[in-house]
């Protein structure tokens, strides 16, 4: 176990880490168009973002990579795989939330056509956006996949999960035990930024959120 890995399991636990990494930029991101499960590829900027982030994440010496099978996530994962020699495992359970008729609409179009639904979702109410999935249903499919692969890690090991903003947020909420009504309070992830979960004696803990640099050990987090 590396010294860095040891800092992520204070007080017990196996000291494992899960890095939840959002894919790079797409044209629909730029247009503020809701992607959901639509298979949109990376822009040139998105590929450059993935390459830069991969160089940083490779420094964490991950033990395994899993990824959504949508192209924007799979191509982001491929950049880290090229540096580490690891073979990503792709799983459709890590896809972004299916959002029905919202998919393909811009943020403004959604508010104009489905304003009440949008407002209820932002209040933390369970909403099938566009007739699609509930956030809890996304967590139901994604979180077990993350846990299954995390369980395969050696003590002090690191798993990189390449997925999507909404799926990452709901997965974090589920793994750290937040009430679903408060998942939205976690905030969004910038393209190709990541969040870090560390394992301690009481389970998973959020250590970094929307990070774009290597995680640093937390010193004196109670003062």
Average pLDDT, all residues: 90
Q: Please identify the structural class as seen in this structure.
A: alpha/beta
Could you give the distance between the termini?
28 Å
Low-confidence stretches: 1-11
Strand proportion, as a percent range, falls in 15-25%
Strand line-up across the major sheet: 3-2-4-1-5-6
- How many strands in all? 6
Assigned CATH architecture: 3-Layer(aba) Sandwich
Total helix count?
7
Could you spell the SSE succession in H and E letters?
Answer: HEHHEHEHHEHEE
CATH superfamily caption: Phosphoglycerate mutase-like
Radius of gyration, in Å, reads 17 Å
Q: Under CATH, the topology is which?
A: Rossmann fold
Structure description:
With 223 residues, the chain is of the alpha/beta class. It has a single domain (17-211), classed as Phosphoglycerate mutase-like (Rossmann fold, 3-Layer(aba) Sandwich), CATH 3.40.50. It has seven helices and six strands, in the order αβααβαβααβαββ. It has a six-stranded mixed β-sheet with strand order 3-2-4-1-5-6, sandwiched between helices. The protein starts with a helix and ends in a 12-residue tail after the last strand. Mean pLDDT is 90; it is low at 1-11.
């Amino acid at each position: 176990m590396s010294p860095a890995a040891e800092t992520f399991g204070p007080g017990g636990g196996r000291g494992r880490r899960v890095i939840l990494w959002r894919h790079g930029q797409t044209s629909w991101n730029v247009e503020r168009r809701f992607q959901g499960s639509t298979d949109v590829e990376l822009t040139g900027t998105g590929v450059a973002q993935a390459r830069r982030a991969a160089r940083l994440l490779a420094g964490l010496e991950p033990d395994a990579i899993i990824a959504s099978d949508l192209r924007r996530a799979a191509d982001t994962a491929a950049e880290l795989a090229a540096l580490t020699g690891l073979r990503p495992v792709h799983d459709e359970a890590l896809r972004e939330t299916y959002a029905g008729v919202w998919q393909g609409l811009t943020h403004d179009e959604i508010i104009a056509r489905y304003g009440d639904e949008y407002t209820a979702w932002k209040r933390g109410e369970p909403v099938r956006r566009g007739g699609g999935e509930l956030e809890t249903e996304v967590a139901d499919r994604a979180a077990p996949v993350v846990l299954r692969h995390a369980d395969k890690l050696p003590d002090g090991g690191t798993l990189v999960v390449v997925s999507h903003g909404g799926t990452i947020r709901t997965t974090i909420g589920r793994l750290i035990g937040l009430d679903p009504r408060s998942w939205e309070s976690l905030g969004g992830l910038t393209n190709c930024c990541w969040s870090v979960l560390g394992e301690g004696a009481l389970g998973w803990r959020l250590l970094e959120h929307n990070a774009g640099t290597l995680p640093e050990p937390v010193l004196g987090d109670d003062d």
